[in-house]
Write a structure and sequence with these properties.
The complex is a heterodimer of chains A (about 300) and B (about 180).
Chain A (H helix, E strand, L loop, with lengths): L6 E3 L4 H11 L3 E4 L5 H6 L7 E4 L9 E4 L2 E5 L4 H6 L1 H6 L1 H8 L4 H6 L2 H6 L7 H8 L2 E6 L2 E6 L4 E3 L2 E2 L6 E8 L9 E9 L6 E12 L2 E10 L6 E2 L1 H7 L6 H14 L10 H24 L10
Helix pairs in contact in A: 9-10, 10-11
Chain B lengths: L2 E8 L2 E8 L4 H8 L18 E4 L2 E4 L12 E3 L13 H8 L9 H14 L5 H7 L11 H35 L2
Parallel strand pairs in B: 1-5
Antiparallel strand pairs in B: 1-2, 3-4, 3-5
Classes of the chains: A alpha+beta (about 300), B alpha+beta (about 180).
The complex binds flavin-adenine dinucleotide (FAD) and FE2/S2 (inorganic) cluster (2 copies).
């Protein structure tokens, strides 16, 4: 199907893009990789009058460690995460996530910024960024501001950006030390077929220090109307020595606090139980990675 | 209705047309440039029959606007064979290994595989399967497609090894004649 009519704008500087956003207001939408927006426009679920393509802006496509963070430019393609040795070696949760987002062709265009800005609870990066405790950087007419990821997802497809703001960067705290030195993460997802959205998926990032889980954050994908942090599951881990019983308790907490809807992907009971099992396994994998330098990302999920 | 003139270099030739802003790249390729080898198999960005290379990168052309390709290069299945009709090793592989039945998915498979082999000239079977996971085939069961891509990878690698060999021979011959 062909999208409704709109006027296309291709600014080449951030100032021009912001000026356009300011003058066109809510009739305009930002076009990044287009892999969520164009499908929505083809079904006329979105009918923007203006599209502002930010693909021509310089300097929004990068991955670098700086000031204690991994900084990811908003226009960084998902495929760049797949191809980055830095991500593969030091950010196992992000590496796990990137390779199960959509399919390779979609990942060649889809952007990290778009995946988060879309605020779709079915998208995989929201849970990952919740687990990392990421920070979102936004640029608007009044300059730059930072938004904690916990405050970013406000409703279904709604985020904390103002109409005249552009998401420019996402920052993930750097792990402490080398792989296996205490920090670990994992993303586990069950989908109906390769390339599909999750039935349920679980993002875990934690730290193990002297045999005790001292830090844990967990995000859940597609089992709630808004991307969800599983704080109950986190509390079931923090202060405990890793064990199967502790992992099971975290899984049960996550199953209790998620809020799935029944649909073609499964019933509520099924999705809750899947969330329990995935949480348990993802926590186990994250602990293994946190404590063993050999057990890092890459290879089969 | 908003429209504009765009120029896209398709298979090395500049194509300039007036298009509506909402024209999808796949319709530009098929209808404006009359290159109907690129197929449309779904409405949901699922099948990959529409795969083309945009600036060398495999993308689903049903999920990009033609205006986004203005000033850029696009490669389609029609650009794969040499001007004299010699098939590209990937096309030859699909022929030799029976990598197609109805052929509907084939142009997209070949364009995806081209990008895959450029990024990774020696993929494992697992990497090939993963690499074409955005392209659906309803006929073959994929095994023959994987074999076709393996055939092409071997052929491309042996051709480039031959070229390296020939260049080395030529360099050696040059050395001999120059005192
Ligand atoms: C077949 C298919 C399967 C998919 N499967 C998955 C999956 O399994 N998991 C998954 O996570 N995703 C999946 N996706 C979605 C894909 O990852 C999207 O590309 C991504 O969600 C959005 O990124 P984008 O760059 O394409 O954004 P766009 O589609 O261009 O934009 C999405 C929204 O975000 C806004 N936006 C984009 N960038 C910015 C910015 N910098 N600042 C402010 N607002 C912005 C846009 O205005 C728009 O409202 C799938 C897509 C397809 C087509
Ligand atoms: S036509 Fe099916 S993915 Fe493009
Ligand atoms: S050969 Fe028929 S769809 Fe692939």
């Amino acid at each position: 199907m062909i999208p409704g009519s709109f006027t296309y704008h291709a600014p080449t500087t951030m100032d021009d893009a912001l000026a356009l956003l300011g003058s066109l207001g809510e009739d305009a939408k930002i076009l990044a990789g287009g892999q969520s927006l164009i499908p929505a426009m083809r079904f006329r679920l979105a009918v923007p009058e203006h599209l502002i393509d930010i693909g021509g802006l310089e300097g929004l496509d990068y991955l670098r460690e700086e000031g204690g963070f991994l900084c990811i430019g908003a226009m960084t393609r998902e495929s760049a995460l797949d191809d980055s040795p830095l991500v593969q070696q030091r950010y196992p949760l992000l590496a796990d996530t990137a390779r199960v987002i959509a399919d390779p062709l979609v990942r060649n265009l889809a952007t990290v910024g778009g995946n988060i800005a879309h605020a779709d609870p079915a998208n995989d990066h929201p849970a990952t960024m919740l687990a990392y405790g990421a920070t979102v950087i936004a640029r608007g007419p009044r300059g730059e501001r930072t938004i904690a990821i916990d405050d970013f997802f406000t409703d279904l497809f709604e985020n904390a950006l103002a109409d005249d703001e552009i998401l420019t960067e996402v920052r993930i705290p750097q792990p402490h030390g080398q792989p296996g030195a205490g920090d670990g993460g994992a993303y586990l997802k069950i989908e109906r077929k390769v390339g599909d959205y999750a039935i349920s998926a679980v993002a875990v990032n934690l730290r193990v220090s002297a045999g005790i889980v001292t830090h844990a954050r967990i995000g859940l994908t597609n089992v709630s109307p808004v991307p969800l942090r599983a704080t109950g599951a986190e509390q079931a881990l923090i202060g405990k020595a890793p064990s199967d019983e502790v992992f099971e308790a975290a899984g049960q907490a996550a199953a209790g606090e998620c809020d799935p809807s029944p649909d073609l992907r499964g019933s509520v009971a099924y999705k809750r139980d899947l969330t329990r099992v995935l949480t348990k396994r993802a926590v186990g994998k994250a602990v293994e990675r946190a404590t063993s330098p050999e057990a890092q990302a890459g290879g089969a999920a | 209705m908003s429209s504009r003139s765009i120029t896209v270099t398709i298979n090395g030739e500049a194509v300039t047309r007036e298009v509506e802003d909402r024209t999808l790249l796949v319709h530009f390729v098929r209808e404006d440039a009359a290159l109907t080898g690129t197929h449309i198999g779904c409405d949901t960005t699922s099948c990959g029959a529409c795969t083309v290379l945009l600036e060398g990168v495999a993308v689903k052309s049903c999920t990009a606007f033609a205006v986004q390709a203005h000033g850029k290069s696009v490669e389609t299945i029609e650009g794969m064979a040499d001007a004299d009709g010699t098939l590209h090793p990937l096309q030859e592989g699909f022929w030799e290994k029976h990598g197609l039945q109805c052929g509907y998915c084939t142009p997209g498979m070949i364009m995806s595989a081209k990008h895959l082999l450029e990024k990774n000239p020696n993929p494992t079977e697992e990497e090939i399967r993963w690499g074409i996971s955005g392209n659906l085939c309803r006929c073959t069961g994929y095994n023959k497609i994987v074999e076709a891509i393996q055939y092409a990878a071997e052929k491309i690698n042996s051709q480039s090894a031959e070229n390296v060999g020939r260049n080395e021979d030529e360099a050696a011959a040059q050395q001999e004649v120059t005192p």
